[in-house]
Amino acid sequence: MGREEIIGSPSFNQISDLGVVQFKNDYDSDLLSLILRRAIELKDQHAEARQLDLKYIRRAHEFIPEILDLAYCPARLARLTAFAGTRVEPYPLSVIASIITFSGPAETDSTIKWHADGVPATELVPLAMENLIGGELEIFRGPAEVGLARQARGMEFLQDETIRVQHKLGYSVLGQLMRLMHRVTPITSGYRITLNMNVRSAERPYIDDNSMCYLAADNPDFAWTDEYTKDVQERQLPAYLRHQAG
Question: Deepest of 10, 87, 233, 246, by most Cβ within 10 A of its Cβ?
Answer without folding.
Answer: 87
